[in-house]
Amino acid sequence: MNEKTQAQLRVVREVRDVLADAGQIDWWLFGGWGLDARIGRITREHGDIEFWVARSDGDSVRDALVASGVTTLRTQPPEESREFTKDGVSFSSAFFEACPDRTYRPRGRWSDWVFPADSFERPHGHLGELAVPAMSIAGMLAMKEQYPTLRNGGPLRDKDVRDLEILRELAQTGA
User: Fold this and answer.
1) Is 0.70 topped by the overall pTM?
2) From CA 144, how far away is CA 140, in angstroms rounded?
3) What gap in Å lies between CA 47 and CA 152, rounded to an integer?
4) Which residues constitute the domain of residue 19?
5) What's the pLDDT tens digit per position in 49-92?
6) For a designed S-S bond to 153, which of 6, 32, 67, 147 qualifies (C-beta 3.0 to 4.6 A apart)?
């Protein structure tokens, strides 16, 4: 494991611990780290760390992380997400809201994304020995499949195509 991955893993652990200490704020990894948590091991180097939180918890997440020494960056629309940095590691929290039909949606530029009802369940994923919450396979699969059709989406990158193949396989095996 290279230094960048080790530093990101330390941040994932710190986010987990800080949010647990702040009153059990629920959060879920997604993107590459979320997929790795569902697989149970680190499979590749990641560009960043991304996690979902309920919009209603956004300020509590920011406050808890800032109190622990994390710096908030003012790079994202505050109704959508927040970006942070700690020890040279960039990471972000994106916000979702529950809908009456039990699906979930982000606000703002990404409000046409729809996540299935089981996207934010509590079973943990694992990054080696580290237990962490991760978006469900169905939720990440919906994210990847919908991305090219979103008004602010775009073509899938090679790593997205590989991730889709893995997510579909995991969904079929019931992992």
Assistant:
1) yes
2) 6
3) 20
4) 3-135
5) 999 999 999 999 999 999 999 999 999 998 999 999 999 999 99
6) 147
